[in-house]
Amino acid sequence: MKFRYYLTIAILxxxxxFFAQNCSYTISGIIKNTSNKTPxxxxxxxxxxxxxxxISNQDGYYEIKNICKGNYxxxxxxxxxEDKEKSIALSNHLTVDVEMxxxxxxxxxxxxxxxxxxxxxxxxxxVKLKNIxxxxxxxxxxxxxxxxxxxxxxxxxxxxxxxxxxxxxxxVMLLNNGVVQSGQQWGNDHAPEIDPLMAGTIKVTKxxxxxxxxxxxxxxxxxxxxxxxxxxPHLHGGLLYFTETNGNxxxxxxxxxxxxxQIAWRVTGTLKKYGDRKTSDYYLNNTGYTEANLAVQLExxxxxxxxxxxxxxxxxxxxxxxxxxxxxxxxxxENGELSEYAQSVLHADEPQYxxxxxxxxxxxxxxxxYHHLLKxxxxxxxxxxxxxxxxxxxxxxxREEYDVRRSGRSDTPALGLLQQTHFLEATHQKKYQNxxxxxxxxxxxxxxxTNDPETGILPLIPDYLxxxxxxxxxxxxxxxxxxxxxxxxxxxTYQNVAYINRNVNRDVxxxxxxxxxxxxxxxxxxxxxxxxxxxxxxxxxxRNPDINELYSYGLHQGVSGFxxxxxxxxxxxxVKATLGLEGNIDFKWFFESLVYAQYIDNxxxxxxxxxxxxxxxGTFPVFEYQQDNARILGFDFGTNYLxxxxxxxxxxxxxxxxxxxxxxxxxxxxxxxxxxxxxxxKGFKQGFFRNSVLEIQYxxxxxxxxxLENQDILPPPNxxxxxxxxxxxxFYVSKTKVNSYIKLDNAFNVKYRDYLNRLRYFSDxxxxxxxLGIKVNF
Amino acid sequence: MKFKAxxxxxxxxxxxxxxxxxxxxxxxxxxLIANVTLTLTxxxxxxxxxxxxxxxxxDGVVDDSEKxxxxxxxxxxxxxxxxxxxxxxxHHEEEEEEHEEEGEEHDHEHGDDIDAEVKEEGTEHQFFYxxxxxxxxxxxxxxxxxxxPIGLETTFTTGxxxxxxxxxxxxxxxPNKFAEGVANGDxxxxxxxxxxxxxxDLGLNR
Lengths: 778, 206
Fold this sequence. Notes:
The complex is a heterodimer of chains A (778) and B (206).
Chain A: E1 10-11, E2 25-33, E3 44-47, E4 53-55, E5 61-67, E6 70-77, E7 84-90, E8 94-100, H1 102-107, E9 124-127, H2 129-134, H3 140-144, E10 150-154, E11 160-164, E12 172-176, E13 179-180, E14 199-205, E15 220-226, E16 236-244, E17 249-259, E18 264-274, E19 277-278, E20 283-284, E21 289-301, E22 306-320, H4 340-346, E23 366-383, E24 386-402, E25 415-432, E26 436-451, E27 463-478, E28 482-500, E29 508-529, E30 532-543, H5 547-551, E31 553-556, E32 561-564, E33 572-585, E34 589-615, E35 618-644, E36 647-660, E37 665-666, E38 674-681, E39 693-701, E40 720-733, E41 736-745, E42 769-777
Parallel strand pairs in A: 2-8, 12-15, 32-35
Antiparallel strand pairs in A: 1-8, 2-5, 3-4, 3-6, 6-7, 9-14, 10-11, 12-13, 14-15, 16-17, 16-42, 17-18, 18-21, 19-20, 21-22, 22-23, 23-24, 24-25, 25-26, 26-27, 27-28, 28-29, 29-30, 30-33, 31-32, 33-34, 34-35, 35-36, 36-37, 36-38, 38-39, 39-40, 40-41, 41-42
Chain B: H1 2-16, E1 35-42, E2 49-54, E3 67-68, E4 71-72, E5 77-85, H2 89-102, H3 114-120, E6 125-131, E7 136-140, E8 153-158, E9 165-173, E10 193-204
Parallel strand pairs in B: 4-10
Antiparallel strand pairs in B: 1-2, 1-5, 2-3, 5-8, 6-9, 7-8, 9-10
């Protein structure tokens, strides 16, 4: 199951036996460290069914003798590593070599240096299954928060979207199992519709060069990859339950999988329910949410050369939005200062409508989001070095946002959007002389976006449809110490927009938009020594303006601003360079660092105009989308030191600075600099806690000082520090493996606000929370 | 070869799906408050004084020229009613004419009876009349189910020292009507969100 990712088991030895039933078979093999291929001494290997086992010797060699013919599961266990399980059919002597990710486990998120650990010259960070399962209570964006250079834009805790190197929204491409997530990604208060519990790994690529996907990768690419189906003909699965004190949350997740001769399948389902969350001293009224998700994976070898995969997933959620954030922050019409009332809301100790009792109720304002995906993937092997893929992906995204309205209209959405996407792709991949790999492909996407007219409100973004046709080519040259990458993409987009004019007659205006987007990327990797390597990546990419940047018009209650788009916007073009250095000294001290610089021509952002619009509901500041030239500079740094195999300490630091070059002002909504220290202890040698890990984490987030006073209605919040504690353990109840964990988030119940959480205008962030989780594997 | 076939398939596929988005159904906007009318009737008899604010395009910018203001006498008690609605009759007619010219049906409506909605949900609404005008007293004369004022009906009483000035009229949705001072028309502790927030300049008849 989960271990499959690292598990490489080679079955080498084949010897024909004349006897059908025989109890003289031997299983033997070598246990190695995945990262540096050194033998692992003292790992125990045993047969689950019989309990018979052996311990690996100085060379990592083990041998289990006198086993009868039959089907078994063998388990490999070593301190500090998660247990591995492998199904075997024994009818002969068998050699099973196992690689244990011993160092990888110790090092979390830091790459290990051996041959080419990275598939690309891009700076990529990975959130592994182990960490996803440790943070099961977090949504997708929050799962990524501890990677260097990644933060989150939030609208309360349940609605969060990832920010990579200062960019987010449609500048960060989200891939759900390799399919560009299609939804209403333009909205800052729209969280990605993906359940992280469906994922096996989450990869964050920080350069601009993920050109094989048809979407905008101006900022970064986040790829959510489902777990592969284990090569085991028996039915296996896992049942996870966790509960969280803050919000009285409960979550059940069940996964089942089987890989028999006809077909390999997996089904994963999640049910979640949370009530009102709590800050350090009051409940956040109406911040509960519910979620119900299901994913089905099917894989079948149609013939020797044709492999077909189907992935279907559905994501359904209802999210409450803090009631006290839904108030009108009007300004004084004379001088544009916030009205007395607005001042009193912003400076209040607690938000309006704060109640003393906890509740699971979710009333308006709330969001209901449904996302369905169907992907059909076909891989045709021509030779071992050449293959074609043919893929289809269809998506339906339905979003309803409910406001507090008069006369029972709170039950009618104030915004109702239905988006359909159909995607077709064909790619060809070929390797030449084991050095050069060429991948090329063409793609087509059709998008249809329709507003629900029953809302009784003019839509914030118009109805539209779009056709996108694009192609790419990637070249990957692998020489001894060097690796070169070069790629290009061209994408053509046609958009037909039906915009309802704001004049008295409400006429429909049609717009035809044509966008040509180009991307070019090049990268080089240099392995200076076995333990040190450099990577440099340079990319140019363009993004056409989003529908909201072109056509929004109206009062955005949540941000108390009157937002105005501009249909004349040109596309954005960005150039980004990254320079990375990774290495280790004696496999003791590990480090990775990345320096980056990005220049964006015609960067689109929302700017407060020193203008006010008077509506019958009061006077509001006007926010107009602007296009200027921008520059983002920063660096990410991470390091780990292994004192012993059982104890390590780590540190991470991210620095970022964004500037608007045209206006000579700082860029708004850039994440604050932050640092993280952690210590991990795995020294329990015996007994119940034998496979347990204790981790203490300290996070410091600086105040965002790179901002002018008039760029926000409230100054950025102060720096804050958080302490989190995790304790995970793995044990057996009879023959069933059980993983359990306890987490203590915000251990000292610190009262704080975060610059990128929009609710900071109204309320504090979350207080202390304890999460208790248990997972039974069968 | 394969690629050509694929391209051909794509071209065919894209010609099947449409290239033009259908015209959207224009939503009815029942909540849109297009008009605020404050009518002051002298108790002793006399002509009504009418204040009016017209804002047709909803969240669009208010045109100040569509604002009508008036003047009050000193030493007078005015029975006052505030009324909200979606569109005035004139506008309906204008619009119908326009639609007739264009040969289209009149297919959008605005809520006409917002007053009734406010009254029905009286416990969730309250008007506030905030001013610093010397010699002007505004008193609520209506009540919701809990005996708290709504503010659709009031009396404006001018005294000897009345000279005129600005009155800010705020309609709050979901205010805390039990908070201190709120029942007396003090907006400070009310909370809630604004449905209406406008200012009229009251003149003085000399």
